[in-house]
Amino acid sequence: FNVKARETLQHLTPYTPGKPIWELQAELGLPNIIKLASNENPLGPSPRALDAIAGSLHDLHRYPDASTSRLRQSLAAKLELSPDQFIISNGGDELITLLSETFLETGDEVIICTPSFSEYEFGAHLMGATVVQVPLGENFQFDIDAIVGAVNELTKLLCLCSPNNPTGTYLPRGILHHLLDVLPKHIVVLMDAAYSQFATASDYTDGLEFVRAGYPVIVLQTFSKLYGLAGIRVGYGAAPETIIRQIAKVKEPFNVNALAQAAAAAALYDTEHVRLTLEANNRGKLQLYQGFQELGLSCVESMSNFVLVDIGPDAKRVYETLLARGIIVRFGGIWNLPHYLRISVGTREENAALLKEIASIM
Ligand code: PMP
Description:
With 362 residues, this protein is α/β, with parallel strands linked by helices.
């Protein structure tokens, strides 16, 4: 760490994820907990990934492939980039830290469109950089004029999350293109596309087309959501080679374990699991939209696998009561949205149970 970063360490707040299932089980003594708090895949992990993990167990005495070449080659073939345009990380979270360590130093500015995923801020603070918050505009849409207005010669990194966590809103292709054209080229743009596969809007882009075109964009992806592999920790960045080469310098050689590499490579080709997941997500989202509407609650149209719902001033009480009844969701207060809950799309039964409990509380 540089000196400034060491000073700022005392201001860092560790990330607090949703309550784990086992913890609530122990607290309540209930066997069945419903967790709709971390945007995980309710159908479970990709079966092909599980087979690949089983097939790799006998090699666990070996170090993993430090170059992650098989996974990078699979990604390159699938996404029409070169293997040298990928860096594999221990979850998308690690990519954010690596990116911050590579490009940020004391005094730099990082633009974050808030509310959003908290790890961008963590990465900035870790390196002693200054966070410049640009609030989302009306209906949680990205405010392009405000983003451009926040840019100055100190800006090093612009973090865009699309679909955005926790709002589910997205940045249309034409607007991203315009933004990339007007931004000074020394600014690295992080396009966090962790939820990209759930997006259904025709003008949605995961940003890869701009990587192919050579813009200074790094697209973050994860195997935690669509592929159901959150527990094994694997994600990646896709970017022009010059950016990847710099990040590779700060990466630990064995950051991605052997089981994760094998699981990810297999999951990429599990088209059946992907199909079922997307179908279930679209159905589940409609079920939640309809249920909230019947309860007179409005929610934000989501391009993702979660829904942000406006509960009103009672949101915290509803969140706590749900928790006491064994249902874990996220309280919007952590993003300064104290009237909202962020609810991951679950199975049909989980969604129904959630709606029933909310109806009985309100
Ligand atoms: N980006 C966003 C927007 C996320 O919501 C998450 C997971 N919560 C991640 C990145 C990182 O996911 P993981 O570290 O599990 O790959």
